[in-house]
Q: What sequence folds into this?
């Protein structure tokens, strides 16, 4: 067990809403937990094995990313076009997942919730990461996202229609070892013929998934954008709604009643507004 003292560091004081200099942070490298922190010098009660002078640099806890797709390249559709898009093969998806894991940990992200991966690759990525085969943050897996036939994300998702298929699909996903179930409840903005108001799973289908997942202690995340879809997903008992473009007072009341949390994915919205009209108009790349 090794304890490292990061000294002469600047740490964030929430009460003061500012960074404070001349602090130390002692970390147990075996558990990854902070043993002691304070101003000036480490107390005599803590045995330190190594000291690192931070020279006034900042220290902050690891970042959590609650909405990732590690098999995706988030910029291909606005920085090129179909001819520049990566292969849809399992091999290319796996390599991009490995690279995205490295990028995440190198940028201070120590935990991710992956909400949809082609070929269930995030399940295997988690195993590789836990065995030390690849670098990366800890992963909450979802496997392939659930979508109606031809629905949002159907290219890499698991297509199901009706309550019975949903139940079978969720049970199969949990058998594979997923930590979370991801449902594509509405359409989106990146596929022709879809809109955020396009409800693709009905409330009975969503509730069936929630019942099965919660029975095994798993969570459910729902891709929902339009207002009515957001309300439907919350009423059905999902744990989180992803994106949720339109939220009104009625929706907030439903959230409180069912304990639903919102993952706003604001960076995705920024990218769509910033690049969507310039690069992806009517299904065609605009140069």
A:
């Amino acid at each position: 067990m090794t304890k490292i003292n990061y000294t002469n560091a600047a740490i964030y004081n929430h009460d003061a809403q500012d960074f404070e200099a001349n602090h130390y942070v002692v970390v147990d490298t075996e558990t990854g937990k902070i043993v002691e922190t304070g101003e000036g010098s480490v107390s005599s009660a803590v045995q330190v094995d190594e000291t690192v002078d931070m020279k006034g640099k900042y220290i902050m806890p690891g970042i959590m990313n609650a909405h990732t797709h590690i098999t995706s390249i988030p910029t291909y559709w606005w920085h090129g076009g179909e001819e520049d898009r990566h292969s849809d093969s399992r091999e290319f998806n796996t390599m991009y997942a490995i690279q995205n894991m490295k990028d995440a940990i190198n940028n201070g992200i120590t935990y991710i919730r992956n909400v949809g991966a082609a070929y269930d690759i995030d399940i295997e990525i988690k195993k590789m990461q836990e065995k030390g085969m690849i670098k990366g943050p800890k992963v909450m897996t979802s496997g392939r996202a659930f979508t109606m036939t031809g629905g949002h994300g159907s290219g890499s998702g698991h297509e199901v229609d009706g309550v019975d298929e949903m139940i079978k699909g969720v049970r199969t996903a949990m058998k594979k070892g997923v930590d979370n179930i991801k449902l594509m409840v509405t359409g989106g903005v990146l596929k022709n013929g879809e809109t955020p108001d396009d409800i693709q799973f009905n409330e009975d289908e969503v509730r069936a998934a929630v019942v099965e997942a919660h029975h095994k202690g798993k969570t459910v995340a729902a891709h929902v954008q339009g207002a009515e879809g957001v309300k439907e997903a919350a009423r059905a008992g999902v744990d989180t709604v992803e994106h949720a473009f339109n939220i009104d007072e009625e929706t907030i009341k439903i959230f409180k009643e069912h304990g639903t949390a919102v993952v706003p994915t604001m960076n995705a919205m920024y990218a769509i507004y910033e690049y969507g009209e310039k690069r992806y108009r009517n299904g065609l790349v605009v140069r």
In short: The helical segments are 90-106, 121-130, 162-176, 203-215, 227-235, 249-258, 266-279.
